[in-house]
Amino acid sequence: IEVFLLHPLGTDHSMALASTETTTWACLIGNSKKWKREDKIQIDLGQTVLILTRDDDQAVNFSWAGGLHFSEILQLIGKIPLPPYIRHEASDEDARRYQTVFSKVEGSVAAPTAGLHFTNEVLEALHAKGVLRSFITLHVGAGTFLPVKVEDASKHPMHSESFEVSRLFVESLNNSRRTIVVGTTACRVMESLYYLALKILTDPEIKDLSIGQFDYIGEERVLSKQELAMVLLDYMDRHGMDVIKSRTSIMIVPGYKFRLVEGLVTNFHQPKSTLLLLISALIGEDWRQVYESALSNGFRFLSYGDSSLLVP
To answer: Which one, of 163, 190, 186, 1, lies nearest residue 77 by Cα?
Structure first.
């Protein structure tokens, strides 16, 4: 039975991973028919026993004693969830390779693979050229891998992903340089920040900071990067926040008008994916030429594949 942790229920990632007694997560369960609802799974960890029980098709309760943090338990018994098309068992080498050099916060179900192309040497070289960089925390969700199975893409139920942006990141938006983002999830977060600022302008005391699938439709208000930063910083000041934590389900499709993103570093994606829809929205019909060139020149696709810099 495989239990693939997606996201915690009733709390955020940091609180759930720091728990020392119990936590509940939404999970994908492989071979779920072998696990009856009334059955408990017990795993002997030596210094404690981890007990798993099911609430429903996805909710799994974890309980244990002994004072270990849940993140430590995952390190003891968990395996790196490599993409399914990588056939070998996860190894120590995968632990190093399937991770970005700038990762700090646990919680993502998959590596944001565009970031795998950046080594410390590359980042230092960019810095030497005067390229500024700012970081966000994002947790890739399993829904990013779901294919679009309907003719009308607007009928596709877009997945939700959680993200965090710091005060330092929001302040960095004040610089007027061209904004190049690394990865499609980071792209979705950046565009979501724009519509989050507009929601705050509409309701300065808003509590629900999440962004829906098509919240941008019909929204014509225009903000500069500087105005955007001022709105978000003012909200953070009034609510005593150093970090904005939110979720986004934004679905970027052809016809979308990009507000903050002016270029994208990304890998090559599968047909019938929301990721390819985003690419098409960014560079238009040129995506066909880009992908034909990649295919004819032996570029590798997907997580451990090659990358591209796409500028409209």
So the answer is: 1
Angle at 119 between CA 118 and CA 120, to 5 degrees: 125
Tell me if residue 62 falls in helix, strand or coil: strand
Would the pLDDT of 144 be above 70?
no
Alpha-carbon gap, residue 52 to 40, rounded angstroms:
6
Tokens of 268: 């090559």
**Whole-structure pTM value:** 0.83
- Residue 241 and residue 235 in contact, taking contact as beta carbons nearer than 8 Å: yes
How far out from the chain centre does Cα 117 lie? 17
Neighbouring CB atoms inside 10 A of 153's CB total 14
Please tell me the chain's helix, strand, coil percentages from 3-state DSSP, rounded to the nearest 5: 35, 20, 45
Q: Which of 81, 1, 4 is nearest to 41 (CA)?
A: 1
Task: Sort 191 into a burial class: Cβ within 10 Å, 0-12 / 13-18 / 19+.
Answer: buried
Neighbours of 26 (CB within 10 A): 18
281 residue type, one letter: A
Can you tell me the distance from the alpha carbon of 275 to that of 185, in angstroms, rounded to the nearest whole number?
9
Averaged pLDDT score across all residues of the chain: 89
Q: Is-contact 251 274, C-beta < 8 A?
A: yes
Map tokens 């990865």 to a residue: 183
Q: What Rg value do the Cα atoms of the chain yield, rounded?
A: 21
Confidence of residue 60 (pLDDT cuts 50, 70, 90): very high
Residue in the structure block whose two tokens are 């495989």: 2
Question: Please, which residues have CB within 8 angstroms of residue 154's CB and are 6 or more apart in sequence?
Answer: 214, 251, 253
Instruction: Report whether pLDDT(241) > 90.
Output: yes
Report the distance separating Cα 148 and Cα 151, nearest Å: 8
**Hey, how many other C-beta atoms are within 10 angstroms of the C-beta on 86?**
14
Write out the E strands in the chain.
2-8, 22-30, 41-44, 49-54, 59-63, 137-139, 161-166, 180-182, 243-248, 263-267, 307-310
